[in-house]
Amino acid sequence: MSKRGRVFIVSGPSGCGKSTVLGEVFRHYKNYHFSVSATTRAPRPGERDGVEYFFISEEKFDDMVEKGQFLEHARYAKCSYGTPRGPVEEKLSQGVDVFMDIEVQGARQVKAAMPEAVSIFIAPPGLEELERRLRGRATDSEEKIRLRLETARTELAEAPRYDHLVVNDDCKRAAGEILDIINNA
After folding, report:
1. Residue 97: count of CB within 10 angstroms of its CB
2. Domain for residue 2, yes or no?
3. Distance from first CA to last CA of the chain, Å, rounded?
4. pTM of this structure
5. Domain of 25: which CATH number?
6. What are the residues whose beta carbons fall under 8 Å from the beta carbon of 169, sequence distance 6 or more?
7. DSSP 130-146
8. What is the spatial distance between Cα 166 and Cα 13, in angstroms, rounded to a whole number?
9. What is the rounded CA–CA span in Å between residue 156 and residue 151?
């Protein structure tokens, strides 16, 4: 029987650089599957269905919740997000490590269901820098930026619940720290 894969939960406020840091991690670590979440939010420019997210309707999302097809699910910034259960279980059974980029509510759900999961919180160097990054994206309205900053304050308060805290003040350094966590898990 092959070794079962491990689950790595990665959370952090919108705009903290999770995708950039994980991209750097994945340049050096190959035995992974990046779990694609489902969401009811509209795609951002350049995002593709089934690659960055599965973009689905609220009705389809609710149906999947009712059928128990999510490992975790939550509402965030007025949209629903969830991790489809099937692909995660399939990869773990194949001995592949699964990385989940999920918000704090979902992370608590996964950690409760899978206590062996390794949780990593990526934090920005400060709220001012986070606001600069969010504004620099030029993808969100002023109201959406304000909501994301309010949510970030709440999320940052959850960081002590995670197994590891990584401050993204330098992408390569933060990625190196995560690679050390993976190698020692």
Report:
1. 20
2. no
3. 21
4. 0.85
5. 3.40.50.300
6. 125
7. HHHHHHHH--S-HHHHH
8. 12
9. 9
Give the amino acid at 67.
Answer: K
Residue 1 placed within a domain: no
Number of other residues whose CB lies within 10 A of the CB of residue 18: 21
- Residue numbers of the domain that contains 88: 7-184
- Per residue in 113-164, pLDDT (tens digit) is 999 999 999 999 888 888 887 888 777 788 888 888 888 999 999 999 999 9
State the Cα–Cα distance between residues 83 and 106, nearest whole angstrom.
Answer: 8
Give the Cα separation of 92 and 44 in Å (integer): 30
Which element (helix H / strand E) includes 35?
A: none
Torsion, Cα 85 89 109 24, to 10 degrees, reads: -100
Q: Around 50, how many Cα atoms within 13 Å sit in the side-chain half-sphere?
A: 0
Could you tell me which of 6, 23, 7, 53 has the C-alpha nearest to residue 174? 23
Q: How many domains does the chain have?
A: 1
Q: Considering the domain boundaries, does residue 22 fall inside one? A: yes
The CA-CA-CA angle for residues 170, 171, 173, to 5°, reads 70
